[in-house]
Design brief:
Blueprint lengths: L1 H35 L11 E5 L5 E6 L8 E2 L2 E2 L8 E5 L5 E9 L3 E9 L5 E10 L5 E10 L5 H14 L2 H13 L4 E9 L5 E6 L5 E7 L5 E6 L5 E2 L3
Antiparallel strand pairs: 1-2, 2-5, 3-4, 5-6, 6-7, 7-8, 8-9, 9-10, 10-11, 11-12, 12-13, 13-14
Helix pairs in contact: 2-3
Keywords: Membrane, Transmembrane, Transmembrane helix
Length: 237
């Protein structure tokens, strides 16, 4: 009986040694990962992830719609606003410089990849936009320009001032004045499929007037059109 008890105790001691050894391996592995700063996840579920530099400078935000970053310029966050889920990119100054957004509701669906001018708004975008009720869609590459560059803060200040007036007529005239002052983006080029099923290249001048169209229309007919500043047809040279 005594020998049996000794054997049981010896077995328990061996099991305890194995357990201590295994725990030691886990502790060493955990310490190694903590020291190296590398942790591997098979799956991660989150509403928002912020990617930052070692000094805390934000570089990328991956977020759902509810927690999406409002944007940042000149070191300051922009006022809270509704933004779609996606990715927001930030440059070395911590300012927003583009992003990838996507969403849909019962009326429309879309996805866009935007590139912003330094300390300003978007100047280039790869986009897909569809009206789910009429089923018309547009997709391709679109470029914009600004008559007055590096004026994002002035643009935001004037727009927010118009919003506070809560007057549709004043808002409309105020927007027209902002456009005249070069504060609003002017579409300059689109390459892709239009809402009217034309597929091709469309170039506009600094005033947003169409000047060149090279496309295949919805009837599969090729067309090349040169237009004057009033969008009247010019003879091909």
């Amino acid at each position: 009986m005594k020998n049996e008890q000794i054997q049981i105790l010896e077995k328990q001691v061996r099991q305890l040694r194995y357990l201590v050894f295994s725990l030691g391996l886990v502790v060493v592995a955990g310490a190694a990962m903590a020291f190296s700063g590398i942790t591997r996840f098979t799956e991660l579920t989150a509403e928002r992830i912020n990617i930052v530099e070692k000094d805390g400078t934000i570089k990328l935000v991956i977020s759902n719609k509810a927690r999406q970053h409002p944007g940042r310029m000149a070191g300051k966050d922009l006022p809270p606003r509704v933004r779609d889920a996606g990715l927001i990119f930030f440059n070395g100054d911590g300012d927003e410089c583009g992003g990838l957004a996507y969403d849909n509701d019962k009326k429309s669906a879309g996805m866009v990849y935007s590139v912003d001018k330094y300390r300003d708004d978007q100047v280039m975008q790869i986009q897909y936009i569809e009206d789910l009720q009429s089923r018309v869609k547009k997709y391709g590459l679109q470029l914009w320009s600004y008559g007055k560059e590096d004026a994002l803060q002035e643009r935001l200040d004037r727009y927010h001032a118009l919003q506070k007036l809560k007057n549709d007529s004043l808002m409309k005239s105020g927007i027209a004045a902002m456009r005249k002052d070069g504060l609003l983006a002017t579409e300059r080029l689109f390459i892709g499929k239009t809402y009217t099923d034309d597929m091709g290249l469309f170039i506009k001048d600094q005033n947003g007037k169409v000047r060149i169209r090279m496309y295949v229309d919805k009837h599969n007919q090729p067309r090349i059109e040169l237009l004057d500043e009033n969008e009247k047809a010019l003879p091909l040279q």
